[in-house]
Amino acid sequence: MNIAEFFQQSAGRWSSIKSNHHVDTTQQQSGRSTIEMELLDANNPAVAELCSKQGLNVSGVAAAAQVKWDGTMEGITKKDSGSSLLVAIGTPEQGQLLRTIGNFGTAAPSGTYRFGDGGEFMLTVEDKDFVTSERIWFESENVRMRHTKVQYPNGKSIVSFCSEVRLMTSKS
After folding, report:
1. Of 3.30.450.20, 2.40.128.20, 1.20.210.10, 3.30.300.30, which CATH number belongs to 3-166?
2. Which tens digits make up the pLDDT trace of 99-121?
3. Which residue among 58, 60, 66, 70 has its CA within the 20 to 30 Å range from the CA of 49?
4. What secondary structure, in 3-state letters, does the chain show?
Protein backbone atom coordinates (compact mmCIF):
# COMPACT_ATOMS: atom_id res chain seq x y z
CA MET A 1 0.00 0.00 0.00
CA ASN A 2 1.13 3.58 -0.58
CA ILE A 3 -0.14 6.94 0.69
CA ALA A 4 -2.45 7.63 -2.30
CA GLU A 5 -4.00 4.15 -1.98
CA PHE A 6 -4.33 4.59 1.79
CA PHE A 7 -6.16 7.92 1.41
CA GLN A 8 -8.36 6.45 -1.35
CA GLN A 9 -9.32 3.45 0.78
CA SER A 10 -9.97 5.74 3.78
CA ALA A 11 -12.29 8.07 1.83
CA GLY A 12 -15.95 7.98 2.81
CA ARG A 13 -17.98 7.84 6.02
CA TRP A 14 -16.97 5.64 8.95
CA SER A 15 -18.55 4.68 12.26
CA SER A 16 -15.85 4.55 14.94
CA ILE A 17 -15.86 2.93 18.38
CA LYS A 18 -12.96 4.09 20.55
CA SER A 19 -11.48 2.89 23.82
CA ASN A 20 -8.97 5.10 25.71
CA HIS A 21 -6.75 3.86 28.53
CA HIS A 22 -4.89 6.38 30.72
CA VAL A 23 -1.99 4.13 31.69
CA ASP A 24 -0.84 6.08 34.78
CA THR A 25 -4.29 6.17 36.43
CA THR A 26 -5.82 3.03 34.91
CA GLN A 27 -8.77 5.24 33.90
CA GLN A 28 -10.65 4.00 30.87
CA GLN A 29 -13.10 5.75 28.55
CA SER A 30 -15.07 4.71 25.54
CA GLY A 31 -16.67 6.72 22.80
CA ARG A 32 -18.35 6.70 19.43
CA SER A 33 -18.04 8.98 16.45
CA THR A 34 -18.75 9.36 12.79
CA ILE A 35 -15.75 10.23 10.63
CA GLU A 36 -15.92 11.49 7.07
CA MET A 37 -12.89 11.78 4.79
CA GLU A 38 -13.10 13.66 1.49
CA LEU A 39 -10.18 13.51 -0.95
CA LEU A 40 -8.79 16.84 -2.20
CA ASP A 41 -6.65 17.77 -5.21
CA ALA A 42 -3.21 19.26 -4.66
CA ASN A 43 -4.44 22.49 -6.28
CA ASN A 44 -7.21 22.92 -3.67
CA PRO A 45 -6.79 26.40 -2.09
CA ALA A 46 -6.70 25.00 1.47
CA VAL A 47 -3.98 22.50 0.49
CA ALA A 48 -1.95 25.25 -1.20
CA GLU A 49 -2.32 27.51 1.85
CA LEU A 50 -1.15 24.83 4.31
CA CYS A 51 1.84 23.97 2.11
CA SER A 52 2.71 27.66 1.84
CA LYS A 53 2.54 28.09 5.65
CA GLN A 54 5.01 25.21 5.96
CA GLY A 55 7.30 26.59 3.24
CA LEU A 56 6.56 23.66 0.92
CA ASN A 57 5.52 23.49 -2.72
CA VAL A 58 2.26 21.77 -3.73
CA SER A 59 4.19 19.88 -6.40
CA GLY A 60 5.33 17.52 -3.60
CA VAL A 61 1.77 16.63 -2.52
CA ALA A 62 1.23 12.87 -2.69
CA ALA A 63 -2.32 12.93 -1.23
CA ALA A 64 -4.68 15.32 0.55
CA ALA A 65 -8.01 15.10 2.34
CA GLN A 66 -10.45 16.97 4.55
CA VAL A 67 -11.51 14.93 7.60
CA LYS A 68 -14.61 15.77 9.67
CA TRP A 69 -15.71 14.05 12.86
CA ASP A 70 -18.65 14.18 15.26
CA GLY A 71 -18.68 12.07 18.39
CA THR A 72 -18.93 11.64 22.12
CA MET A 73 -16.71 10.24 24.87
CA GLU A 74 -17.94 8.60 28.03
CA GLY A 75 -18.02 11.03 30.97
CA ILE A 76 -17.73 14.13 28.76
CA THR A 77 -20.96 16.02 28.09
CA LYS A 78 -19.59 18.23 25.31
CA LYS A 79 -19.67 16.66 21.83
CA ASP A 80 -16.33 16.29 20.10
CA SER A 81 -16.70 17.57 16.56
CA GLY A 82 -14.47 19.35 14.11
CA SER A 83 -12.44 19.04 10.98
CA SER A 84 -8.83 18.81 9.93
CA LEU A 85 -6.92 19.08 6.69
CA LEU A 86 -4.36 16.33 6.00
CA VAL A 87 -1.65 16.74 3.36
CA ALA A 88 0.95 14.06 2.64
CA ILE A 89 4.23 15.32 1.17
CA GLY A 90 6.88 12.89 0.01
CA THR A 91 7.18 9.58 -1.75
CA PRO A 92 4.29 7.13 -1.92
CA GLU A 93 5.94 4.98 0.80
CA GLN A 94 7.17 7.60 3.29
CA GLY A 95 7.15 11.30 3.95
CA GLN A 96 5.69 14.09 6.01
CA LEU A 97 2.03 14.48 7.01
CA LEU A 98 0.94 18.09 7.40
CA ARG A 99 -2.28 18.83 9.24
CA THR A 100 -4.34 21.62 10.67
CA ILE A 101 -5.72 21.84 14.19
CA GLY A 102 -9.48 21.35 14.27
CA ASN A 103 -11.65 24.09 12.89
CA PHE A 104 -9.04 26.81 13.30
CA GLY A 105 -7.00 26.03 10.17
CA THR A 106 -3.85 26.52 12.24
CA ALA A 107 -0.91 24.32 11.30
CA ALA A 108 -0.34 21.54 13.86
CA PRO A 109 2.91 19.68 14.46
CA SER A 110 3.60 17.65 11.34
CA GLY A 111 4.44 13.99 11.50
CA THR A 112 6.36 11.45 9.50
CA TYR A 113 4.61 8.54 7.84
CA ARG A 114 5.71 5.22 6.44
CA PHE A 115 4.15 1.85 5.66
CA GLY A 116 4.94 -1.37 7.48
CA ASP A 117 5.57 -4.74 5.88
CA GLY A 118 1.87 -5.62 6.25
CA GLY A 119 0.73 -2.42 4.52
CA GLU A 120 -0.20 -0.64 7.76
CA PHE A 121 0.11 3.16 7.85
CA MET A 122 2.42 4.32 10.65
CA LEU A 123 2.56 7.94 11.78
CA THR A 124 4.87 9.54 14.35
CA VAL A 125 4.32 13.10 15.57
CA GLU A 126 6.95 14.60 17.87
CA ASP A 127 6.36 17.86 19.71
CA LYS A 128 7.91 19.39 22.83
CA ASP A 129 4.81 18.38 24.82
CA PHE A 130 4.25 14.82 23.52
CA VAL A 131 5.15 12.04 21.10
CA THR A 132 2.30 10.31 19.29
CA SER A 133 2.65 6.99 17.50
CA GLU A 134 -0.28 5.82 15.41
CA ARG A 135 -0.80 2.67 13.40
CA ILE A 136 -3.78 2.21 11.04
CA TRP A 137 -4.57 -0.90 9.04
CA PHE A 138 -7.45 -2.39 7.10
CA GLU A 139 -8.91 -5.76 8.07
CA SER A 140 -10.99 -5.57 4.89
CA GLU A 141 -12.16 -2.91 2.45
CA ASN A 142 -14.81 -1.74 4.93
CA VAL A 143 -13.17 -2.40 8.32
CA ARG A 144 -10.29 -0.28 9.60
CA MET A 145 -8.36 -0.53 12.89
CA ARG A 146 -6.39 2.21 14.60
CA HIS A 147 -4.01 2.08 17.58
CA THR A 148 -2.56 5.26 19.07
CA LYS A 149 -0.14 5.94 21.91
CA VAL A 150 0.52 9.44 23.24
CA GLN A 151 3.59 9.68 25.48
CA TYR A 152 4.22 12.79 27.61
CA PRO A 153 7.62 13.95 28.96
CA ASN A 154 6.46 13.33 32.56
CA GLY A 155 6.11 9.61 31.77
CA LYS A 156 2.31 9.59 31.55
CA SER A 157 0.71 8.06 28.49
CA ILE A 158 -2.65 7.43 26.87
CA VAL A 159 -3.30 4.43 24.66
CA SER A 160 -6.35 4.14 22.43
CA PHE A 161 -7.81 1.59 20.07
CA CYS A 162 -10.50 2.25 17.47
CA SER A 163 -12.46 -0.10 15.30
CA GLU A 164 -14.04 1.64 12.34
CA VAL A 165 -16.65 0.33 9.92
CA ARG A 166 -17.46 2.03 6.63
CA LEU A 167 -21.00 3.42 6.49
CA MET A 168 -22.58 2.24 3.27
CA THR A 169 -25.14 4.32 1.43
CA SER A 170 -28.29 2.55 0.39
CA LYS A 171 -29.00 2.40 -3.32
CA SER A 172 -32.44 3.63 -4.35
Report:
1. 2.40.128.20
2. 987 655 566 788 999 999 999 99
3. 70
4. CCHHHHHHHHCEEEEEEEEEEECCCCEEEEEEEEEEEEECCCCCHHHHHHHHHCCCCHHHEEEEEEEEEEEEECCCCCCEEEEEEEEEEECCCEEEEEEEEHHHCEECCCEEEEECCCCCEEEEEEECCEEEEEEEEEEECCEEEEEEEEECCCCCEEEEEEEEEECCCCCC
